[in-house]
Amino acid sequence: xxxxxxxxxxxxxxxxxxxxxxxxxxxxxxxxxxxxxxxxxxxxxxxxxxxxxxxxxxxxxxxxxxxxxxxxxxxxxxxxxxxxxxxxxxxxxxxxxxxxxxxxxxxxxxxxxxxxxxxxxxxxxxxxxxxxxxxxxxxxxxxxxxxxxxxxxxxxxxxxxxxxxxxxxxxxxxxxxxxxxxxxxxxxxxxxxxxxxxxxxxxxxxxxxxxxxxxxxxxxxxxxxxxxxxxxxxxxxxxxxxxxxxxxxxxxxxxxxxxxxxxxxxxxxxxxxxxxxxxxxxxxxxxxxxxxxxxxxxxxxxxxxxxxxxxxxxxxxxxxxxxxxxxxxxxxxxxxxxxxxxxxxxxxxxxxxxxxxxxxxxxxxxxxxxxxxxxxxxxxxxxxxxxxxxxxxxxxxxxxxxxxxxxxxxxxxx
Amino acid sequence: xxxxxxxxxxxxxxxxxxxxxxxxxxxxxxxxxxxxxxxxxxxxxxxxxxxxxxxxxxxxxxxxxxxxxxxxxxxxxxxxxxxxxxxxxxxxxxxxxxxxxxxxxxxxxxxxxxxxxxxxxxxxxxxxxxxxxxxxxxxxxxxxxxxxxxxxxxxxxxxxxxxxxxxxxxxxxxxxxxxxxxxxxxxxxxxxxxxxxxxxxxxxxxxxxxxxxxxxxxxxxxxxxxxxxxxxxxxxxxxxxxxxxxxxxxxxxxxxxxxxxxxxxxxxxxxxxxxxxxxxxxxxxxxxxxxxxxxxxxxxxxxxxxxxxxxxxxxxxxxxxxxxxxxxxxxxxxxxxxxxxxxxxxxxxxxxxxxxxxxxxxxxxxxxxxxxxxxxxxxxxxxxxxxxxxxxxxxxxxxxxxxxxxxxxxxxxxxxxxxxxxxxxxxxxxxxxxxxxxxxxxxxxxxxxxxxxxxxxxxxxxxxxxxxxxxxxxxxxxxxxxxxxxxxxxxxxxxxxxxxxxxxxxxxxxxxxxxxxxxxxxxxxxxxxxxxxxxxxxxxxxxxxxxxxxxxxxxxxxxxxxxxxxxxxxxxxxxxxxxxxxxxxxxxxxxxxxxxxxxxxxxxxxxxxxxxxxxxxxxxxxxxxxxxxxxxxxxxxxxxxxxxxxxxxxxxxxxxxxxxxxxxxxxxxxxxxxxxxxxxxxxxxxxxxxxxxxxxxxxxxxxxxxxxxxxxxxxxxxxxxxxxxxxxxxxxxxxxxxxxxxxxxxxxxxxxxxxxxxxxxxxxxxxxxxxxxxxxxxxxxxxxxxxxxxxxxxxxxxxxxxxxxxxxxxxxxxxxxxxxxxxxxxxxxxxxxxxxxxxxxxxxxxxxxxxxxxxxxxxxxxxxxxxxxxxxxxxxxxxxxxxxxxxxxxxxxxxxxxxxxxxxxxxxxxxxxxxxxxxxxxxxxxxxxxxxxxxxxxxxxxxxxxxxxxxxxxxxxxxxxxxxxxxxxxxxxxxxxxxxxxxxxxxxxxxxxxxxxxxxxxxxxxxxxxxxxxxxxxxxxxx
Lengths: 414, 1023
Hints:
Chain A is an all-alpha fold. Helix content of chain A is 58%, strand content 0%.
């Protein structure tokens, strides 16, 4: 019995190996590019992290050729070889490879140590994007939920203002009408002769503004209002001290996030390498710039500053935009990696900023507020398993950061 | 032993309840407030006016946002990421002091030294000196350039000039002496050997400041091996030490502490512990940990050793030594009985430099069958290789040139005066040292060495155990490693890196077969910090004992009635080579708790006899006419009619910190039979002057409440909770235990809910030796400032963790004189030979914290992980919290120590005003540098907890026990401090507190029910 079992396990193991082999060969050499959502998403992630610096899924040339339809132009085995080691392919005398190499100014494509399945997923993504590009205009009409929410707010305020203006206008008209009525009535009464002197006096009484002006009540109210307005202005001013929301200093190099992050869609993590692993997202070192700019736009005076920095050995002194006080410890990895917070939640639409600016107030109130409202990204993270279970017992609300000590002093101050 | 007949006291002030002590004990802060100006003017009003203006000015100034720069790397090194620390395995080897370490670097700056668990020598522990060595790196008084005749020069010029001079000397036939301390590095040794090969008249002379020459010579006679044995205290169930401070300063204290503590730990499953007898003159760290301590005069030591020999010999049937005087004392008999009962599992050591004493010790160990078990000569160790004859050789040789490699004989060698005179006659004097010292001041060629954190080097502490030193920062100044300099002068052109690799390729790589390529062998050794292959090495020897020679030496010794002195090393300052390190100067000496000074320790009886008081300056004059003036410190446990003085002080050419601190007593070293002897006969004379010593011992007193709880092993075996003080509170419903009563929440009795973590510390009073490596480790980790002697006297030291040292004795109960038991000294005074307890105290992180309830601005609050948080930016400095803290662990920051001119002299390495920014480089960027006017205290290394949690969260798992360590628990060589999550049932701390040592665990001041997160395990004595 036991022997049979062993044989069976062996056989099944062999079968598994063979089927795996079969499958991988199939995957590698067939032209059938998967269309499953999961594969495409995986490919998208890989593409955005590794390829966007040089390629777009359009016909546009960035550093390397636009990749729209590349799955049609080249067979999968060729693509795999090319991505893994383009130099090898060029040296092997492959005609197409040499043609591309020469066409793009003999700039070599970096080698990527991907598995077959990973390359297939990237191609799957390119395929899905290539096909989407055609259908895109129709799709872009539907904005996301977040988009509508932010857009709705200004509309509300303008309509409120409109109502207010209308309201004031109506009141003004009523006032004018009333004044007119009074003057007509006074005129009429003065013209009539049936009035006694006493009555005439009453009718013609001038309103004594001076008396009102000198009255205690008026002085009191005026002082009160004055103090209120000045106080509010002071407090507003004081609260604003040290808050540099909107701070957009001129940088030594006119680097455009709009171009790099917006137009070329380079992932933030490509340059800000620390964002998922360390406290500081880090300002990119010059060698990261040179990954692309040793080939692109060398002649631009701004890019020349990079060359100068390298030749003189003096690093570029960027002006810090986001200045947290030293007493506050903010950790990018905790938020971006563990919390899964999007960069733009705090940094705003950087992809639209020609000159980068401080989007959020970065005050403690702002931090705390987010900790009050944000649910912990605890799904599939075993660190939070017990905490989530304990929280679920007492509450139906999702577990917020504040529920696990997110408002405590020494989470940030130590 | 019940609790009630013992008293605990930290100093004579407390024992005698002196008025000064009583006054200070009741005040959290000293009366030292600058309230009025000297002429009684309008200081306060002026101050308020100034403040009003200041606030307005500050508000205006604050309106402008300063432009701050963010400067990235030009070309970022692949393995350096901003804000992520990198750790490198390396080796600390200063003379014979050895420790395998892990260096924590941030953005390329070493900021913290931690222990390396891969090493079978130091096993993850470090000492205070090792922890502090990182600060010496940034000492701006190090040499910055090579120099000739006091003028800056270039390395090329120095090499060519020196090269031709050395050639001249060699061709004239005169000697070239290379003087060093023990050289642990095999690469440096090889470089020296190659130099000697190139210049045939050259000779290498190695001496040690705390010499073990006597042991080396004795082992040569006994075994034919001129080396130290390797000791294994972890196997020793009975230890007898004659003056060897093996936990503090003798040979390899970190290793010995680690091993010693293994047999001092107790648990449900291990109810045996070692028994330790100590015979010594002054109270040492080791003596304070002993179960039986006997104070002896230095002249009695040899006789005591011989007595023990004969007592053991009687029991095992060996030969008797003749020439022993006096009757065997009770304590010797009892020690011999215990030793023989633990044959093969016992150990006798002696710190004596007398060959005869060491020969007898060897024979006792041989009779007990300890060789091969608790000590081994077949795998010798090399912590001390220096020979006492080296200095004589130097003095008598007709040397034409002398090269000092990190040695400072003009200050610390015997016959320093003669060496000084000799140097005046020698034309070529070269100093290879990383900082100026008394010897380099007399040299005409200065070839500055790198600090060890900038160096490639290696060490061979014992046969088959090798370790590597790797640089963790590029040299800060124009310095060059000693290996490289010697190689250059021998005509080579290798840099230190290639040289060390070459030595390893030739000597160590071939001894193994596991790894086939040198590169992978090297990479592995470098990664681990050590390469250990003890099996491949080992020497064979045979034993011989010449009883007549020893007996002859014995017959010369006599009981002396004169006043005798001993010299000793302090745990912090050691031999003074790191004296310019303010962390070490301010480190309270474990026993005396004195900082910033050395002094003459005397016993209370002696002081009474001579009419001396603490702080009286006395002149100590040795028989040979050497004298020194030092203040008196009354030291409980000091042997009658003796005085002791610490070496390592009185530096003259060292730097701002150490110059003029204390007095140099290396001059008192005697040469007897060619051996450096650290004791002798002296006279003592009162000068009439007074001096104030900066002792921390009675600061932060807890008013003699039962906070130290101890018992004996016998009682513990009967009842594991023996010695526990369980307070009961009288209420209207009868007596209740304190935790049943609360003014806060009478229903739940639980004010906090810890769903996530519940951090805590468990401190085993039994294995804590009081060495203080945690104090310095904490100081480095948490940017704790140095305050200087004046401020220590003002009771304003800033250490977040203090080690309370209590003396205790039964003798206060005057009617009962029999309790002294085995102690055979007559006990007239409780201070004559007290027992000692060490208790590390940091913030107890109370769960009903008294400090939290009184803070008016909520600057100190409680976290959901059980931490008592201190928020500096919220603190306004009312100091209510400190006044309400029952443990006195809060420290008020009186000055901006990092920017205040007043502290620049005592704290140059922290001086943040320096333009070159050296002073800031040692700071831990993860911890706020506190400003003046805020309260600060132990945070249980919350920055380490946060980063450990983050690592776990990124990997989507719970933190693993041991992954997060506080600075104190990480550095503790005896693993007495255990940090962990008390909510994790698998953590070491949970097991300690809930399973293995449940009955021993207690909190300080349980009666006030503040529910600390720090627990202590009772002290147990094997008496």
